[in-house]
Amino acid sequence: MAVLKIRGKQFYWKAKKKNHVKGIKLSRNFGQHQAITAGLEAAKGDWIVVMDCDLQDVPENIPLFYNKAMEGFDLVVGKKNKPTR
User: Fold this and answer.
1) 3-state secondary structure the chain
2) Mean model confidence pLDDT for the chain
3) How does pLDDT run across 28-49, given as a tens digit for each residue?
4) What's the chain's Rg over C-alpha atoms?
5) 52 or 36: which carries more pLDDT confidence?
6) Contact (CB, 8 A) for 29 and 6
7) How much is the pLDDT for 44?
8) How many CB atoms lie within 10 A of CB 84?
9) How far apart are CA 58 and CA 2, in angstroms?
């Protein structure tokens, strides 16, 4: 897992102490796309999940993506549905 330090959030420092987490400190806020690129370049492993830390994406969906990948797909992409009223 790669965690980016953005705007001095404490999560970076707590997560950095874990063995499975790689902390990345950017010199300034370069924007979301550059931050994702930095995280992807630092990530290691067979599978990578890109997710914002604000929980707009549901971490509980990660196993669904992984299971699809295990069915033989090279790339699995999710799309949010509009809530029904």
Assistant:
1) CEEEECCCCHHHHHHHCCCCCEEEECCCCCCHHHHHHHHHHHCCCCCCCCCCCCCCCCHHHHHHHHHHHHCCCCCCCCCCCCCCC
2) 76
3) 888 888 888 988 888 888 888 8
4) 15
5) 36
6) yes
7) 82
8) 4
9) 18
